[in-house]
Amino acid sequence: MISVVILGAGNVATHLYKALSKTQETEVKQWYNRSIDAINSFKNEVYITDDLSQLKQADIYILAVSDDAVKPLTKQLPFENRLVVHTSGSVNIHDMDKKNHRGVFYPLQSFSKSATLNFTDVPICIEAIRSEDYHLLKKMAIAIGSPTKKVNSEQRKVLHLAAVFVNNFTNQLYRVAHEITESEGAEFDLLKPLILETAKKVQKLSPYVAQTGPAKRNDKKTLNKHAKLLTNKHHKDIYDLLTKSIQHTHGRKKL
Amino acid sequence: MISVVILGAGNVATHLYKALSKTQETEVKQWYNRSIDAINSFKNEVYITDDLSQLKQADIYILAVSDDAVKPLTKQLPFENRLVVHTSGSVNIHDMDKKNHRGVFYPLQSFSKSATLNFTDVPICIEAIRSEDYHLLKKMAIAIGSPTKKVNSEQRKVLHLAAVFVNNFTNQLYRVAHEITESEGAEFDLLKPLILETAKKVQKLSPYVAQTGPAKRNDKKTLNKHAKLLTNKHHKDIYDLLTKSIQHTHGRKKL
């Protein structure tokens, strides 16, 4: 049984709490947050505290706090030589105070407050200074059903950046499509199956192989038709840049 | 029983042939293509021809051909007063020769040669000059299990443009993420569950509500970290433009 203390009360902390308290292989011994109010509703199922000096002994301390809070929080911990991990995509493992054994447990997924999340869909990027810690963290990930991958701080930074492209930027393209359709009285909803199919396609094919459309074909007639339809300059900028990008990737044009 | 003749041999034609020949409510009476070779492998299951003068009588003629071929093909048809539809997102219904009754049967989805496609995931945008034709086309769509929507030529053009954003451009963002990760020895595969989750999220939430990340939060520290990581100028241009776009949408910045 792996004993865990969770620090923080955001989406990642809450989803980890729920997953870790469900399995037989892990036990959440305590939940800490700076402000007790955020976790008060869990007080009947787990020890809660807002006092760092009251932290219980555990195998792993998970700091699921904002990027900026990681470093100062590791300094404030009133113990040494225990395993302390953070869950951030962009904080270097060496930014943590070295009085404790350090590790990273970065779930590469988008966490919403409400949606229930299946950790089988959440790859965990694991990093640790000591190999025994790496194996313990891997065991914890497997206990909640997650696939795992050994990822160093440099690779993790790059994954975090790439995640912005496939998540935030992709979502913004959906938003632009929403603006374009609604402005002409067409229904955004009609695009939803295509959105899903596009994401499914690259589960098996590389994005290079999966590409289609007028930019790739260099179909100037359609590109011109679209240019005329785009009345919003900002939408047109995005159209032009991504068309150029596709043509570059597929050997149609130099940048 | 609705009788159909299919003209063309691309992905849309082939998928429609398979779907229409499977249901009880529709019958593919004949399959035409300019070059017989492309459909020769189907000759034991359906009448095939490369001769327009040999076209059989049917309730609906589906022109699943390239955009440029639609207009000339409608002119070449050796009959009148029958229902002729095209399947293109961007060809106006009035571009078709008016000697026949005209309609549009536009499947809003990405068609690959290999992948089997379930038409329940393919919304059909229907347009027709005559209301009885509209109802017949709707009946045909329902027969293959598709949701349908009445969409006029202007709305269809806009949907076709929006589809480029959610399909081709989104796929290009996946490609950029692939380039970013692989260049640093990180695994693109780790992003696949996030790609799927991002697409699933907007099936229920609007893209506006679904947005998260450093651009929306105006988290300058992370934005700066990413700027430093982006060594490829072209990737940086996309990062900057889409960050600006998100900040504009969420009231952080004027364009």
UniProtKB/TrEMBL annotation, chains A, B:
Every DUF2520 domain range: 122-246
Stored Gene3D superfamilies: NAD(P)-binding Rossmann-like Domain, ProC-like, C-terminal domain
Residues covered by the Pyrroline-5-carboxylate reductase catalytic N-terminal domain: 4-86
Signal sequence bounds: none
PANTHER family: CONSERVED HYPOTHETICAL ALANINE AND LEUCINE RICH PROTEIN (PTHR40459:SF1)
Name of protein: DUF2520 domain-containing protein
